[in-house]
Amino acid sequence: MALAGLEWSMEQPRLASTLGDLDLHLLGEGTHLRAYEKLGAHPQAVDGVEGVSFAVWAPNARSVSVVGDFNGWDGRANPMAQAGPNGFWETFVPGLKAGQFYKFELHGPDGKLLPLKADPYAFRCERAPGTASIIQGLPHHEWGDGAWLAQRRTTHAHSAPMSIYELHLGSWRRRPDGTFMSYREIAADLAPYASYLGFTHVQLLPVTEHPYDPSWGYQPLGMFAPTSRFGGPEDFKAFVDTLHQAGLGVILDWVPAHFPEDAHGLGFFDGTHLYEHADPRQGRHMDWGTLIYNYGRVEVQNYLISNALFWLDQFHIDGLRVDAVASMLYLDYSREVGQWIPNRYGGRENLEAVHFLRRLNEVVYAQFPDTFTVAEESTAWPGVSRPTDKGGLGFGFKWDMGWMHDTLRYLGQGMMWRHDVHDEITFSMVYHDSENYVLPLSHDEVVHGKRSLYGRMQGDAWERMANLRLLYAWLFAHGGKKLLFMGGEFAQAKEWNHDTALDWGLLNQSANKGIHDLLKDLNGLYRSQPALHEGDCQPGGFAWIDCADRFNSVLTMLRRASDPRDFVAVAFNFTALTQRGYRVGVPEPGVYEELLNTDSTYYGGHNEGNIGRVKTQPIPAHGFPQSLNLTLPPLAALFLRPAHTAPPRS
To answer: At CA 320, angle to CA 317 and CA 321, rounded to 5?
Structure first.
C-alpha cells in the first residue's frame, strides 16, 4: 500500500511502499516482531519490476541514500524517502540482485556527511576486513529436522538431561593448510563427534558477523548475519539442520549487551547517539571499550528482540545464551563512584535493561515455547530464571558462575591442603535451589593466562589427570545442566588459542584418550540415570549424605529422580590417598553396583575400588540404618546404586 506523501525521484517508477501503515505503527511502538522482514535489503518484484527494497531507521538524518558497487558508491544516485513520522527511510532500486555490495550514506542533522554505514539488518556481510553489507534475501533451505522439532519441547524440559559442548567455530578444527573450515564441513565432523560423546547440545560462541577475530564474536556488528568466515546464511542453516538430524540441539551465544564503535557500525548512526546512550557514563563499557545499547528506546528494544526471534525462526536455533547479563543489570557495573548515573529512584539497577530482558523472555517463550534462554549472570540478582509474573527476569536457565569459581579454586589447591578450604567445594549447595542452573566450564576459564583445565589441576602428570577426572565427575554428579568447552574432553594441555585448531593429536595418547572415554561414559550415565538429571532444577533432586568430612576431604551425596526411590549415591575422594574401610550410610539395604569408577584403568586410573559391587551392612551411619564399607580410590569418584534397580548398561 502506498503511503501518502511518499515522493519518488523522476528516475524511479512510482512503486508500492515496502513499509505499510501497520508496519510503521508496529515499528514506531517497538512491537514489530518480524522487523527483519521489512527493514534492511529485500530482493523482490514490485509492480512487476525486479529489484531490491531498502529500509532503514535514521530519525535524525537530514538525508539517506543507498550506495554500492551498483552505483559507484555515489549517494546522489539512489536517495531514500521518509516513510511515516518515526524516522524510517525507504526506497526501491530496480535491477539489483543478490550478491551486490551496499551501505547507507547519511547526512546528519547538521548536514555533515557521516561515514558510510553497514545495514543493521543485513542478512549477509562482506568477509572481514571488508565492511560492506551484501544484498541477500531471507536464506532458503529445505529443512530435514522435522523429527527434532517435533520432540524438542521434552528435550528442553528442566527435568531432561542437558549436556552442552561449547565451541568456537574458527578453532575447533581447521583444514590442513590452516584455513577455516566451512559451516558444512564443520557440521559433517561435529555432528558424529558430539553425538558419539553423548552431548545433547552444541553451543556456539557468537556467529553474528564481527569485524575483529580476537573478539571471538563478542563484539558483533552484523546481528542478523552469520559470519561470512565460514560461508553464507544457507550454509549455516545446513549446519543447524545436520546437527538436528544427529539429535543435537544448537545454542547460540547472543550479545545484546554492547557493540563495537567501528565507524561503519551502529555508533552515532544518524549523526546522533541513536542506538547507544550519549553520556559515556551510561553508554560506554569501561572494560571493553564498547558501546551500550539504550534499552529505553523502544526501537532499540525492537531491533534486539526481533533479532532474537530471527535466529529462532529462520535458523531453527534451540536456545540463546545471553552474554554479559550482569553488565546490563547494573548501572555501576565495573565503574567507580562518579562514573555512573543512578536510576530515577537513586539506585544502581538499570531499570530499562530489566524491562528489556523481561520482555525479551516473555516474547521468546510466547513465540517459541519449545526453545529456551540462558543468562550469563554472575551476581546474586534474584530470580534470574524465575517467571516474570513472579518477579523474575524470565530466563530458562542461569550459568552458575559461583560453582565454577569455587570448584576450580578448590581443585587448584594442593591435595594436602584441601581440608582447609573444604567449604568452597560445598558452598554451591547452599543456594542451589535458587535458580535453574547450568554448570559452566567454559571458554572464559581457559584463556588469558588462566591455563587449560588440565593445566589448572595440581600434582604430577598422573595426579593432574586424576584431578581432571574428579572435576568432570563433580560436574556430572552436581545438580544443574552441564557445559564443557572444546578441548576439555581430551585434556587439552595448552591454553585455548583462537588462531589455531585444538591439539587433536593428543587423542593418540592413552591418558588423554582415557579422559575422552570418561566424558563419553559420564554423558551416557547422566542421560541413562533419571536420578542424575530429573532433579537438576528441583530441591528434592539432591541431598548430602555427608558434607562435613573435611579431615579426609571426602564428600558423599545422593541424587534422586522424581521417584525418590530411584537414587544414585556418589562418593568423592579429593585426596591422593586410598581410603579403605570408609563407611557411607545409604537409604536401602542390598547389593550396590559401581555404575562408574573414575579410577578405572580404562580411564587412566589404578583400578582401585570395590570389584564392581558392594553389599550393605546393618551398621548405622549418616542417619541410615545400613551402610557400605567402601574403598575410595585416590582422587576419584564412585557412582553407586542398588543393583536390583539399576538398568542394564549400554
So the answer is: 145
Q: Please give the positions annotated as active site.
A: 323, 376
Q: What are the backbone angles phi and psi of residue 83, rounded to the nearest 5°?
A: -120, 105
Dihedral angle at the C-alpha atoms of 192, 490, 185, 124, nearest 10 degrees?
A: 110
What per-residue confidence (pLDDT) applies to 646? 52
Length of the chain: 650
At 367, is the secondary structure helix, strand, or coil? helix
- The mean per-residue pLDDT over the stretch 587-608 comes to 97
The yes-or-no verdict on residue 301 having pLDDT over 50 is yes
| pLDDT (0 to 100) of residue 84 | 86
* pLDDT value of position 509: 97
User: 149 CB contacts (<8 Å, ≥6 apart)?
Assistant: 244, 316, 370
Confidence of residue 645 (pLDDT cuts 50, 70, 90): low
Q: How far apart are CA 441 and CA 445, in angstroms?
A: 7
Please give the DSSP secondary-structure letter assigned to residue 164. Answer: E
Cα separation, 81 vs 89, in Å, equals: 5
Name all domains of the chain by residue range, CATH numbers in brackets: 21-134 (2.60.40.10), 539-645 (2.60.40.1180)
The alpha carbon of residue 41 and the mean position of all alpha carbons in its chain are separated, in whole angstroms, by: 28
Helix (H, G, I), strand (E, B) or coil at 126: coil
Taking all residues of the chain, what is their mean pLDDT, rounded to a whole number? Answer: 94
